[in-house]
Amino acid sequence: MGSFFSKTMDENLKKQQEFMLKTQQLAMERQMAMQNELRERQMAMMIAKSRDFFWYWVTFDTLVSTGLLVGALKRKKYALLLPLIPLSFVTTYQWDLAYGPKIGRMREMADRIIDEERSLLDLPHGLPTFSSIEAARLDQKKNEPYKSGHDIFL
User: Transmembrane residues, as ranges (predicted)?
Assistant: First the structure.
């Protein structure tokens, strides 16, 4: 009689472990999908921000270029056109970031760093562990005993 109960309990335990494993796997997949969607939204916001800034920059660049061109032609001082050179470089960079293939080049460079220069990505003291985080928390708690205002009067 006892072996019958132990067999059914073992079977139930195995079923429960399999169910928990599937549940954990599903939760992990959902978490990964959520993190990926958040990453995609952040990238979209970054691209939208650079495109918005690009149009502000183009407006500024157009006004400055027009003013410099009119001033150079009126005064016959063509040296006034020299600031257009760095302004054109900045405008080209902003266009490349907003509409050009710069993000693709950045992604390729990031892939190359991950593949070839992995040591640059290491954290200074390695990955934090639970024990190191707990030790730091306890040390901070020990070093700051009078954190709240009412503790001064004790």
Answer: 53-72
Evaluate the CA torsion angle 16, 19, 25, 31 in order and state its sign. negative
Q: Give me the domain span that covers residue 102.
A: 2-124
117 located within any domain: yes
Q: Which two tokens stand for residue 11?
A: 């079977």
Look up the pTM and report it.
0.64
Give the pLDDT score at 95.
Answer: 95
58 domain residue, yes or no: yes
SS3 144: coil
pLDDT for 2 beyond 80: no
Query: pLDDT tens for residues 102-114?
Result: 999 999 999 999 9
Structural domain total, the chain: 1
**What Rg do the C-alpha atoms of the chain give, in angstroms?**
31
CB contact at 8 A, 65 and 87: yes
DSSP string, 5-38: HHHHHHHHHHHHHHHHHHHHHHHHHHHHHHHHHH
| In a domain? residue 108 | yes
